[in-house]
Structures are given as structure tokens and as C-alpha cells.
Amino acid sequence: MGDASELTASAERRLGDRIAREIFRDPDYIDDPVLAEYVDGIWQPLLAAARQRGEMSDELQQRFAWQVMMGRDRSVNAFALPGGYLGLHLGLIAVVSNRDELASVLGHELSHVTQRHISRLTTQQNAQTPWVIGAMILGALAASKSPDAAGALFTGGQAVAMQNQLNFSRDMEREADRVGFGVMSDAGFEPQGFASMFDKLQAASRLNDNGAFPYLRSHPLTSERIADIRGRLPLGVTGDAVPPMKLDHAMIRARSRVLSNYMTIDALRAMVTQAQAPRRDELPVPAQVEILYAAALASAQMRDFSAATSWARKLAEPVKDDPAARRLASLLDIELALMSGQSAPEIAPSGRAELLLMAQVWLRDGQAAKAASALQTWTVAHPRDATAWQMLGRANLAQGQVLRGIRAEAEAQVALLDYAAAMDRFKAAQAVVRDSAGGAGVDHIEASIIDTRARQVQLLLREQALER
Length: 468
Fold this sequence. Notes:
This protein has helices at residues 9-25, 33-53, 58-63, 90-93, 99-114, 117-124, 130-145, 147-150, 157-166, 170-186, 192-206, 215-218, 223-232, 247-259, 265-275, 285-301, 305-319, 323-340, 352-364, 368-381, 386-398, 402-415, 419-435, 444-467; strands at residues 29-30, 67-71, 78-81, 85-89.
């Protein structure tokens, strides 16, 4: 369809940053290391395939964030935002049957971004500045969670206008289907995942969507879209036959359900009761694994660590021959040990999830230097990882390295796009340097880094002020 937008990539990224900054502050925003790593394992191949196919220009690749932000919301939803940000509700992760179905949703949303659909929509609203549109998008997101909360951001006709603004045109939906289908296929995912995800949504629409599927409202299904996707499947392949659920995916589904919002004590108890069913062993193995994982984590959420450990031990048997599932079971063991205050098994971090969990163990057990070393290496390679920066700050402060600790706290705020809070921390670090007696004991290299970063962030803060 081409790019008929007037909004530059830089302006769209700034608009996306403004929206993302508010999402980071939302209590429902979640950076769960286990879920984030699983989603990222799907997201990164999609990005690579989009680049290889030429769907993503060099400018977009460099300027956009390309970041998936997860929310605790139990509703089945995902959405694209300006500047390469995507939103993903835990409710959607909890209902997809495999990685391929999740890849179909992420691929579709990614294609909305690469095809500049959001920018073209804002261009259509040329009577409004992008920043007004940004405020309206925030209001629409608030409305999806609480109609009352939205009243503080917009009212009346503006709400209707924004609903139309967020709904992509039929042509854009078809284009995102077509491009997303090609991207997920080239990324190595099974194309029937796109069709089976459509089947799930169509079944929900037949039930007169009760509000649990907001994705249906922002991405309405049509018979034409469904037929088009089925027509793109390889010869002899249908979307009807869903492959058996993999064990690691079953565990991720369970985790998403337990960590979603509005999870009451009664709901957690129901998960444990399900695991206690006498005929549980007769269920397919993936169903057993999902039930046991949910029971272990739900028990821990209710502070019943004895029961949590018992369910985790039962989980070990069915996953022992599956490396991916066995790894998730090991991560759960560490998590339960942290929550209960018990000793945790020592494992060498092979990814972000192990790193962040083991860093917590090391900090708890008085091994701050070990945690700091591992986290420092990670943040050099991943400077936008706010959670890692926050833990590095704790580790540095625990060793008495005040300047490094405060700087890490500041970098965490930069990663969360809260430049005002970051400047407060940088100024606090500069005050420590000034108050030291003649500079004795001051890490002058670190002090120089802090001065440089403070100047850089001050410029970003001024840009934010101009946007208002």
C-alpha cells in the first residue's frame, strides 16, 4: 500500500515513547523474566524475518523501539502502538495453544508497524497534532480497562473519534494479515497457526464476545480475511489440525493465568483443587503439566510454600525428558526458594530469566559482588533493561559503591523513559561527589560518566518539555 504518512519516523517514535512512558507507570505493567524471555524468543525471529524480507527499512530498524510490553490484563488482546511498541495482555498468552498462534498475533501487529499504518492513520487526523492523538490513545487504553478512568483523559465525541482512530481500515487489516503471514512463515513458525488463531477468535465472536476478547473489536474478523488466510496455507495443510501442545508452552500458559490481574484467592484455590482431581493422571501430559505448574505457583501466591514445593516435585517427573520444560521447572524451583526464604539451587545463568532470578539469590545470600559482575555485563549489552539496572543498583549499594549504585538507579529510570526521575538520581550522585572531602574515595571515572549522562538526559528532558 506504500507509505502515505506525513508523520516522520522520529516523530512517531517520540509519540510512542510518550505512550510507553505512561504504560511503564501502570500497575498492570509486568516485566516477568520468564514470560518476557518466552515472548522474546518468538519476537526476535519475527523481527529478523521482517528485516530479511525488506518489510522493515533501515530507518525504522534504527529509530523504532521494537519492544513488546506485557500487561496483567486477563482479556485476550494485543495492540500496536506508535514507534515500534507492542502491547500484549497475559490473557492472550493464556489462551493460545502453541508458539505459532502467538507468533501469528505478534506478526500481524508487527506488520501494522512496519507498514506505517499508525502513522498513516494519524495523518488522516491532520486537524489534530500527534501529541493530542497520543493523549487520546492513552485514554482509549484506559477505557479498555476501566471506563471510569478514561473520563479523566477524554469525553464524549473525542472517545468515539479515538475508537475509530484505533480501528485500522479493512485494507490495513488485510495487509497486516498478508505481510504478517509471510513474516511468521519465514521466521520458522507453522503457518497453520495463523488459521487456528483465527478459528479461536471466530469461535469467540459466535459467542457474542462478552468483553474478554477486545482483540475482536479492534481487529474485527470478516469471512474474507479468514478465507484469504486459509487460501495462503500450503497445499494439503489446514488450520483445523492443531498440533499437540508443547510442555514448555503449557507451563507458560499456566504462569500467565496465575500472574494475571484480578486473581482472587478463590481463583487460586480453584487451580489447586484442579490439581487435586483424582483422575488428573488420565489427562494428556501437557494438560497435567499445565495444571501442576499452575497449582505450584498459585500455592506460592497464597504463601503455602509446603504445598507449592510438593506440586513442583510432582511436576519434575513429566518434564524430565523435555529440556525446555525442565528448564522452566528449574526456574520455578528458584522462584519458590526466593519466595519462601529457603536455599536455592545454584545454576549458571544461560539467559535473562536465570540471570535475574540468580541475581536475587546472590543478593539475598550476601554475594552482591557476584550479582553486580553478572548484571554489569548484561546491562552493557542490554542498556534498555530497566529491571537489570534496578538490580545492579541494589548490588552496587550493597557493596558500598554509592556512585555506581545511584547511577544504575538513574539508568533504570532512563530505560523507563522517566527522564525527570533519572535527572534526580544523577543530581544526587553529583551531590555525593561535591560533598566528599577533597574528592577522597571518589571514583572519578564513574563521576565523569555521571556528568556526561546527566547532560545527555537533560537534553532529552528538554525535548519532552517542548512536546507538551
